[in-house]
Amino acid sequence: MRVGELSRRSGVSLASIKYYLREGLLPPGERTSPNQATYDEGHVHRLRMVRALIDVGGLTVAATRDVLAAVDDPEVPLYVALGRASGTTMDPGDQDETQDETWAAAERTLAAAVDERGWAVSDENPAWHTAVGVLATYARLGDDDLSAQLGLYMRAMEEVAEREVAAVVDRGDRARTVEGVVVGTVLGDTLLAAVRRLAQQHCSLRLLGETPLRPRG
Amino acid sequence: MRVGELSRRSGVSLASIKYYLREGLLPPGERTSPNQATYDEGHVHRLRMVRALIDVGGLTVAATRDVLAAVDDPEVPLYVALGRASGTTMDPGDQDETQDETWAAAERTLAAAVDERGWAVSDENPAWHTAVGVLATYARLGDDDLSAQLGLYMRAMEEVAEREVAAVVDRGDRARTVEGVVVGTVLGDTLLAAVRRLAQQHCSLRLLGETPLRPRG
Description:
The structure is a homodimer of 217-residue chains.
Chain A: H1 3-10, H2 14-23, E1 30-33, E2 36-38, H3 41-56, H4 61-72, H5 78-84, H6 95-98, H7 101-117, H8 126-140, H9 145-169, H10 174-208
Helix pairs in contact in A: 1-3, 3-10, 4-5, 4-10, 7-8, 7-9, 9-10
């Protein structure tokens, strides 16, 4: 199909398609003349993925490119790409000045929790740095509730991850497995955050006596 | 203290402080002359919160302002502010075109899951719209694994929310309670996402035989 139909089918504007081609988020179409190319169903699907990761997952264009690189390249360990694929990343520029005693204490807290739970994880996983950063930030704000919740978070996320990894294992095709993991992880972050807020509304209704603006239905 | 000391104490640049003052994220200091104001410990603390929400929580400046408004204004229901305080928000401009049969089916899925769990939540909670949007997006990508995980997510988040709401109930002071909830929720999103990726690494090591780049320690 021509680029016009690709735009219509995917619901993505021509300007955005050109931008994604330029940034390497969308592979080029097959050239049919110096000014024309044709696209296939794979391009429609890829564009839907790109929009899901950006619009719903909240990823930046750069993070989306990193994530899609893992889908396309079997050499990139999945967990490295997923670790980078957060809606937020700690600014590496701040890293040096944050490596103080608070940071070291936060890292010891995480290491102890991981060892207690028996997780085999690497501190090269970008998520390690992010988790330490959150714990250190919270400690600097004069609080440590999040350290206290850490074990609960780990238990809850282990149950979620176990089911999710098992669900994609037998998809067979590697690209399809990786795609499922990536999209499920990024969209799952947003869904988890939303479900958490619904749960908070339910619990604060029960525990604090707050009333909803208007009950559903 | 003068603005220079406020910058030094909080680690936030003068340019950023002026920007936050202009955008209403930081309340003005007390004017001592037409060109000078003094700031107090409350300003230092507020600046640390602003940076935590933006740098670690991944909020936009606009979302940060919404969240801080709930800390300052007892009239804003907490869950409305928290629902807005996600690292990502569904673009309301897309709302009309997304209200198709896929969207309606996603909303029925969420409503059934919420009813089954006995949650008293309002569809005016912005998180409701976000959750429906994620489920609909995932269905459009030709998959429905996330609907299958929904019950698991809800159970995990109810356990987390229950403990978190209970932990802040007896702080007494409303502003301090709300601040604890807000910061814990926004930073908690980032921590949950990071812990989820560590759990995935652990589970994929066990289930897929993937090896870490280098084990920790």
